[in-house]
Design goal:
It is a single-pass membrane protein. The chain has twelve helices and no strands. It is an all-alpha fold.
Length: about 180
């Protein structure tokens, strides 16, 4: 969408009551007068800053004048509006249209929310199941040949202590049981 079309779309929003005040409009006109390339001549800037005319009339005339001048002039107006009235710039109807996502595009924030929407009970159930499977695998492992009591005592050792410490403890218990 060209800046001229965007400005035409935003014109009613910008000219409605109390959106832009006198100071902001004057700052925008001065910026358009002073930027390179000069968007408004000195005479045009004086015309649009004339305090005898109503703000609504001046702003409407300015927007129509910029639309006649072309896309570059409208783009500079949006830049000046962003610098001098950022909140209003973000609330423009044309900006909201530009921010609307493509319906075929995946909204990652929504997807992330949906994946994390299970709650703490689901997490605890999954964790308990994983811990139970790990414990079952550990206890049924044929490599460790430890007596039943030692196996029961050290059943939770992978969770509490490291692997090397566990092996040393099992060897110690095995030796103790043989004596």
């Amino acid at each position: 969408q060209s800046y001229c079309h965007r400005l035409q779309h935003d014109m009613y929003f910008l000219t409605s009551t109390s959106r832009l005040n006198e100071q902001v409009v004057d700052k925008i006109v001065l910026q358009l007068n002073r930027v390179y390339p000069q968007i408004l001549t000195n005479e045009e800037a004086e015309k649009f800053r004339n305090p005898k005319a109503s703000l609504h009339t001046r702003l409407s005339d300015l927007l129509k004048h910029l639309q006649k001048k072309g896309d570059r002039h409208c783009q500079e107006f949006y830049r000046a509006l962003q610098i001098n009235a950022e909140q209003l710039f973000n609330d423009l109807p044309s900006r909201k249209i530009l921010k609307t996502p493509d319906p075929t595009e995946i909204d990652t924030d929504k997807e992330q929310y949906m994946l994390n929407d299970r709650g703490p009970v689901f997490f605890l159930a999954c964790f308990s199941m994983a811990a139970g499977l790990a414990l079952f695998w550990y206890c049924c492992n044929s490599e460790t040949q430890v007596i039943g009591r030692a196996r029961r005592i050290l059943g939770f050792s992978p969770i509490i202590i490291g692997r090397h410490v566990r092996n040393i403890c099992m060897l110690y218990l095995e030796d103790m049981s043989k004596n």
